């Protein structure tokens, strides 16, 4: 069964009415996903056996008419720990790793009766913006198989766009949910830092990482965020703030809302099609009764530079644990312990991971700490202050999600710096820890999806969902589906 | 391209991070890192003299918990993940290279 143009409520209704059982649904969904695999390559692992066993359990218990997620198939990014199911983070370093626990978000979803059909491809340890740094496979963009799906949650985004599943989880450190959502014409939310537990998410940069949902539409996204949010005693940074029902006020519209449009996000380096799509989106909001005005975030332009010091620094520390001793890849024929560490790490990590570990190690080293790490952390404060100032007067900020639509596979591989600039518009939200979501906002002349990013104050995902929903109801971009997956554009 | 980082520095940083680079990789990574570090030159434009650094953005400060040990009884699954096991223990090579004795 292909899930293009379906939503969670519709599938839920079929399950409640008994038109289809969870087991039949899971079987059909996996069959379709497997067919799509040859073209797209969204999955590292498809857990057919476990998924069908889980679905049978849901059927035995009976579909809960009050729980929209019961029996709904989902996909999980491969950096989320899944008990007894291969979890590689896209790295040779973890080519055989089977966790002994489920991540908190994985457990929360399975407690609600969702069925995880597989683990999705990603850039190695979530470091990349095209899913090409994966040691496992290349994932293609369902809208054009010669283009990247974005990254690092490229497999999750492609799986949703191709109609494999209605929802997938990803993780976002500098844009890794929002950028692939934008490239694939779907909805992707990076929640407020602390909204969702990071326990069982393989750590990349701990002061930025957040787990969030990728879905076909805004309402389904809010449903998923409801399911995974909340304080977790295993994650000391997860917030004890009350979690609202994100679907409750989602239909209340944007009348009277004040939306800022930062001039720095529509200037140099922004593709003309992207710019036009966002200006049109601003008009849609004006017609719906919101006030949209130009604002300024003057320090955002230093975001990429500061990010590529702080994130690699945190990564260089987090990735020290991969030493070839307790689990994962171990080099053969090491003569002593030191050689075992060095050879296992040198053979187990790919180039992008090595670049970032070295960059981080350098930034933290004695002679560079003040000029690099501390300076970047001070710039982080300036970026936060810019946001605070705008949010004193505005409820939301709207921007393009990415400077350009999806680029070609192999196009930016040899040039890390160009690849890094793709994150320029998404990184600031991670710097400040504020929530951000990408929603479909148009198409380029060559038919590739364009995303709009909505940003809000800490813990105000509700405003983002409200505005995202209103936009979706008044545009038809989200109803388009990739022709090559059997949809109609 | 200006040399913002030298081959020697890259070699040193790699060794700190327990990575080794081949003869071919060293100039490749040196060029790329040097190129990336060009980004950081923009920092000179920004005056941060009165600005406090931000190291985290959590709203949770000093979360405490009881310090109690917890046995998850997962020894077997943990050992199944280990590359080399003997007598229920993880085996590693010796710290000192025995072949050079």
Automatic annotation (TrEMBL), chain B:
<comment type="similarity">
    <text>Belongs to the GatC family.</text>
</comment>
<dbReference type="InterPro" id="IPR036113">
    <property type="entry name" value="Asp/Glu-ADT_sf_sub_c"/>
</dbReference>
<protein>
    <recommendedName>
        <fullName>Aspartyl/glutamyl-tRNA(Asn/Gln) amidotransferase subunit C</fullName>
        <ecNumber>6.3.5.-</ecNumber>
    </recommendedName>
</protein>
<dbReference type="InterPro" id="IPR003837">
    <property type="entry name" value="GatC"/>
</dbReference>
<dbReference type="Pfam" id="PF02686">
    <property type="entry name" value="GatC"/>
</dbReference>
<comment type="function">
    <text>Allows the formation of correctly charged Asn-tRNA(Asn) or Gln-tRNA(Gln) through the transamidation of misacylated Asp-tRNA(Asn) or Glu-tRNA(Gln) in organisms which lack either or both of asparaginyl-tRNA or glutaminyl-tRNA synthetases. The reaction takes place in the presence of glutamine and ATP through an activated phospho-Asp-tRNA(Asn) or phospho-Glu-tRNA(Gln).</text>
</comment>
<keyword id="KW-0648">Protein biosynthesis</keyword>
<keyword id="KW-0436">Ligase</keyword>
<keyword id="KW-0547">Nucleotide-binding</keyword>
<comment type="subunit">
    <text>Heterotrimer of A, B and C subunits.</text>
</comment>
<keyword id="KW-0067">ATP-binding</keyword>
